[in-house]
Amino acid sequence: MDNNRVFAIWLSSINGIGSKTFNKLVGYFGSPEAVYKADNKELIKYLGNGVTYKNIVEAKKQNPFKNIDILIKNKIEVLLITDEDYPELLRNIYNPPPILYIRGKLKKCDEISIAVVGSRNATAYGKFIAEKISYDIAKHGITVISGMARGIDSYSHKGAIKAQGRTIAVLGCGVNITYPKENEKLMNEIIENGAVISEFPIDYLPVSGNFPARNRIISGLSLGVLVVEASVKSGSLITAKFALEQGRDVFAVPGNIISAYSKGTNELIKQGAKLVNDVNDILEEFDLRTDIKERINEQMINTLNNDEKKVYEFICDCTRDIDEIMNYMNYSVSKINYILTSLTVKGFINRVPGNKYEKNFEKF
């Protein structure tokens, strides 16, 4: 691990050094290593004789390499904002996290993502909707981002995993801590199907003040934020507020007008958030944004199995009848029918008169 990364880890692990202070220190001294090597006179000149100064002086007595073995042992990757593969959407928000701790893997395809968030005290309706819409989002090759909290967040991750899609959990604690504890199995599944990330160092506890900062990352990673259920004082509304400030789309699922858990979402709709009944209400927002639509279509194609992809590409050339497809694939009629039905249900192709099939030009 290079020195720049080691000293960034050291600096981010100091109590009271959040993203703003981290960036100010690096901006003034030039690098995390320069902060470590600065003498106390330089530090006190910039910081004054306050808590931050004292915490840095105390931290300088420790070995900056002390946590590296723990990170390696737990397969925790460290991504700096200066790294080429740092998420571009996140890099461009106000106050981006200078360092991300990651378990699992961030991929290029995660740039096309939707955050799905909501109440911890979700109703059965809210849990069902969160899981269903997240499942449908993931089936379109779009990454689902949430916060792994109880309620809506957990069911959003579950829906994406059920669809065999990608999902990312953004934590308000260190990535080596499972919070809430009952989500240990879910956390492991998220790591297998995407990533668990945090700007907070390892062993950092999930105190309440961490979560608003966490929420700006959830929206910052996403093209848009869908709020499924939220009370009027829900943290999900903070995520929606960050989304608006970051220029992201905001979506909301309407709910029971007498339910406390729908007051926040219904209010968002009144204020201009797009009402969402199903995944198509989200997808149509991107229809006019050619670059995003093309990426979504590309990622949808990548969700097909080899047989489906081969048949789809054959049909893309021109309209084909079932005999042509059977001869091309050298499969039985029952197997070809199964593949064609799957492609039709998924919206890739349309059946036309004469027992023929063509590409769905409205979607692709």
Automatic annotation (TrEMBL):
Residues 78-286 form the Smf/DprA SLOG domain. InterPro entries: DprA, DrpA_SLOG, RuvA_2-like, WH-like_DNA-bd_sf, WH_DNA-bd_sf. GO terms for biological process: DNA-mediated transformation. Pfam families: DNA_processg_A. Belongs to the DprA/Smf family. This is DNA-protecting protein DprA.
